[in-house]
Amino acid sequence: MNKIEKLTLAVLFSAITAFGHGSVTPQKVDTTGLKQLGDTWVSENPYSTDNPKAVEIGRSGYSENCARCHGLDVISGGIAPDLRELDKFEDEYFLGKVLSGVTRNGNVYMPSFADVLSQEAIWAIRTYIMDRRAKDGIE
User: Fold this and answer.
1) CA distances to 5, 40, 69, 80, 95 from 74, in Å
2) What top-level class would CATH report for the domain 24-135?
Protein backbone atom coordinates (compact mmCIF):
# COMPACT_ATOMS: atom_id res chain seq x y z
CA MET A 1 0.00 0.00 0.00
CA ASN A 2 1.47 3.36 -1.01
CA LYS A 3 1.58 6.53 1.10
CA ILE A 4 -1.47 8.09 -0.55
CA GLU A 5 -3.58 4.99 0.07
CA LYS A 6 -2.45 4.89 3.70
CA LEU A 7 -3.26 8.58 4.14
CA THR A 8 -6.68 8.09 2.53
CA LEU A 9 -7.47 5.21 4.88
CA ALA A 10 -6.30 7.22 7.89
CA VAL A 11 -8.57 10.14 6.96
CA LEU A 12 -11.50 7.81 6.31
CA PHE A 13 -10.99 6.02 9.64
CA SER A 14 -10.80 9.36 11.46
CA ALA A 15 -14.06 10.52 9.87
CA ILE A 16 -15.82 7.28 10.76
CA THR A 17 -14.57 7.47 14.35
CA ALA A 18 -15.54 11.12 14.75
CA PHE A 19 -19.07 10.61 13.45
CA GLY A 20 -19.61 7.03 14.61
CA HIS A 21 -22.36 8.00 17.01
CA GLY A 22 -24.21 10.09 14.47
CA SER A 23 -25.91 13.34 15.32
CA VAL A 24 -26.16 14.12 19.01
CA THR A 25 -28.68 16.89 18.49
CA PRO A 26 -31.64 16.18 20.79
CA GLN A 27 -34.77 15.12 18.87
CA LYS A 28 -38.35 15.94 19.82
CA VAL A 29 -40.56 12.97 20.73
CA ASP A 30 -44.20 12.63 19.69
CA THR A 31 -46.13 11.78 22.86
CA THR A 32 -49.56 11.49 21.26
CA GLY A 33 -51.57 8.88 23.17
CA LEU A 34 -49.98 9.50 26.57
CA LYS A 35 -51.75 11.14 29.49
CA GLN A 36 -50.65 14.78 29.41
CA LEU A 37 -49.02 15.92 32.66
CA GLY A 38 -49.37 19.69 32.41
CA ASP A 39 -46.83 22.41 33.10
CA THR A 40 -45.86 21.42 36.63
CA TRP A 41 -43.01 18.92 36.61
CA VAL A 42 -43.53 15.76 38.64
CA SER A 43 -40.58 14.17 40.47
CA GLU A 44 -41.71 10.55 40.08
CA ASN A 45 -42.46 8.67 36.90
CA PRO A 46 -46.25 8.76 36.43
CA TYR A 47 -46.20 5.98 33.82
CA SER A 48 -45.86 2.30 34.59
CA THR A 49 -44.22 -0.45 32.56
CA ASP A 50 -47.77 -1.85 32.30
CA ASN A 51 -48.48 1.10 29.97
CA PRO A 52 -47.62 -0.26 26.49
CA LYS A 53 -48.02 3.19 24.88
CA ALA A 54 -45.50 4.76 27.28
CA VAL A 55 -43.05 1.90 26.64
CA GLU A 56 -43.49 2.25 22.86
CA ILE A 57 -43.03 6.03 22.87
CA GLY A 58 -40.14 5.68 25.30
CA ARG A 59 -38.43 3.13 23.05
CA SER A 60 -38.65 5.52 20.12
CA GLY A 61 -37.47 8.50 22.18
CA TYR A 62 -34.60 6.49 23.65
CA SER A 63 -33.52 5.29 20.21
CA GLU A 64 -33.47 8.85 18.88
CA ASN A 65 -31.84 10.55 21.85
CA CYS A 66 -30.03 8.10 24.11
CA ALA A 67 -28.93 4.96 22.25
CA ARG A 68 -25.89 6.58 20.59
CA CYS A 69 -24.15 6.83 23.95
CA HIS A 70 -26.10 4.62 26.35
CA GLY A 71 -26.39 1.67 23.94
CA LEU A 72 -29.03 -0.07 21.86
CA ASP A 73 -31.83 -1.62 23.91
CA VAL A 74 -30.38 0.22 26.95
CA ILE A 75 -27.33 -2.06 27.00
CA SER A 76 -24.34 0.22 27.45
CA GLY A 77 -21.36 -0.25 25.19
CA GLY A 78 -19.13 1.50 27.71
CA ILE A 79 -19.36 5.05 26.37
CA ALA A 80 -21.91 6.19 28.94
CA PRO A 81 -23.50 4.63 32.05
CA ASP A 82 -25.83 1.66 31.73
CA LEU A 83 -29.20 3.23 32.50
CA ARG A 84 -30.68 -0.13 33.51
CA GLU A 85 -28.57 0.17 36.67
CA LEU A 86 -30.67 3.11 37.91
CA ASP A 87 -33.36 1.67 40.12
CA LYS A 88 -36.96 2.79 40.34
CA PHE A 89 -36.20 5.06 43.28
CA GLU A 90 -33.89 7.24 41.22
CA ASP A 91 -36.56 9.00 39.13
CA GLU A 92 -35.61 12.43 40.47
CA TYR A 93 -31.90 11.82 39.74
CA PHE A 94 -32.75 10.69 36.19
CA LEU A 95 -34.94 13.75 35.60
CA GLY A 96 -32.22 16.09 36.87
CA LYS A 97 -29.55 14.65 34.57
CA VAL A 98 -31.85 14.72 31.52
CA LEU A 99 -32.92 18.30 32.14
CA SER A 100 -29.51 19.76 32.99
CA GLY A 101 -27.19 17.49 31.00
CA VAL A 102 -23.73 16.53 32.19
CA THR A 103 -20.66 18.75 31.84
CA ARG A 104 -17.26 18.06 33.39
CA ASN A 105 -14.23 20.32 33.12
CA GLY A 106 -15.99 22.31 30.40
CA ASN A 107 -16.68 19.21 28.27
CA VAL A 108 -20.28 18.28 27.48
CA TYR A 109 -20.77 14.59 28.16
CA MET A 110 -24.53 14.75 27.71
CA PRO A 111 -26.53 17.66 26.33
CA SER A 112 -29.43 19.18 28.20
CA PHE A 113 -32.79 17.99 26.92
CA ALA A 114 -34.77 20.64 28.84
CA ASP A 115 -35.67 22.68 25.77
CA VAL A 116 -36.43 19.68 23.55
CA LEU A 117 -38.21 16.95 25.50
CA SER A 118 -41.52 17.36 27.28
CA GLN A 119 -41.94 15.73 30.65
CA GLU A 120 -44.21 13.19 28.96
CA ALA A 121 -41.33 12.23 26.63
CA ILE A 122 -38.78 12.08 29.45
CA TRP A 123 -41.00 9.91 31.62
CA ALA A 124 -41.87 7.66 28.65
CA ILE A 125 -38.12 7.15 28.06
CA ARG A 126 -37.69 6.36 31.75
CA THR A 127 -40.59 3.88 31.48
CA TYR A 128 -38.90 2.14 28.55
CA ILE A 129 -35.62 1.95 30.50
CA MET A 130 -37.43 0.40 33.48
CA ASP A 131 -39.20 -2.05 31.14
CA ARG A 132 -35.82 -3.12 29.70
CA ARG A 133 -34.43 -3.43 33.23
CA ALA A 134 -37.26 -5.78 34.19
CA LYS A 135 -36.99 -7.83 30.98
CA ASP A 136 -33.24 -8.17 31.48
CA GLY A 137 -33.79 -9.41 35.04
CA ILE A 138 -32.08 -6.48 36.76
CA GLU A 139 -33.52 -5.86 40.19
Assistant:
1) 38, 28, 10, 11, 17
2) mainly alpha
